[in-house]
Specification:
With about 160 residues, this protein is mostly helical. It is about 50% helix and about 5% strand. Helix 2 packs antiparallel against helix 3 and helix 2 (about 65-85) packs parallel to helix 4 (about 120-140). The longest helix is centred in the N-terminal third of the chain and has 25 residues, at about 30-55. The radius of gyration is 22 Å and the shape is elongated. It starts with 13 loop residues before the first strand and ends in a 23-residue tail after the last helix.
């Protein structure tokens, strides 16, 4: 790895291990688990893109609550995936799916109406989730807190009290 005290270890089907200073394996995520998480995140991102694109234009009494709620939900989804998973892959999969569905729905169908019109709210929906995705995916890995890792006691023996 690139940070002091950590390294990547590949053991058969196990990947993405973080090794602490003493050589203890801190955590291990299987490749299948990581890919499965990415696939589920992509489905959730696609569903979010579908629903949020449909409601982003909602407004009441001149207050564009639809875009505020849509960008907030997209940000919460992507930030939540980034915080829950140690890998960026699930957040990346959700972001790509959300943006792809939003882009697909913004295309004008033959004889149909546009879901993302060229107005300020439409531009905010086009660029808002993209900006959120870039920030969330570029954000550094969360720093370990004091309670994240259990320290093992030093071995006791005749020369150690």
């Amino acid at each position: 790895g690139g940070t002091p005290g950590t390294a990547s270890v590949v053991l058969g089907d196990e990947v993405l291990s973080r090794v602490g200073r003493g050589g203890d394996v801190v955590d291990r995520v299987s490749r299948a688990s990581l890919l499965g998480s990415g696939a589920v995140a992509a489905l959730v991102g696609a569903l979010a893109g579908l629903v949020l694109t449909a409601v982003h234009q909602a407004a009441e009494d001149g207050v564009p609550w639809g875009i505020v709620v849509a960008v907030a939900i997209a940000a919460a989804l992507l930030a939540g995936l980034r915080l829950v998973f140690d890998s960026r892959l699930p957040a990346l999969c959700a972001a790509v799916a959300l943006l792809a569905v939003s882009f697909w729905l913004s295309l004008q169908p033959v004889g149909g109406s546009v879901l993302v019109p060229a107005n300020p709210t439409g531009y905010a929906w086009t660029y808002g989730p993209l900006a959120v995705a870039v920030i969330v995916l570029a954000w550094p890995r969360r720093l370990p807190r004091a309670g994240d890792r259990l320290d093992t006691p030093a071995p006791k023996g005749p020369d150690r009290p």
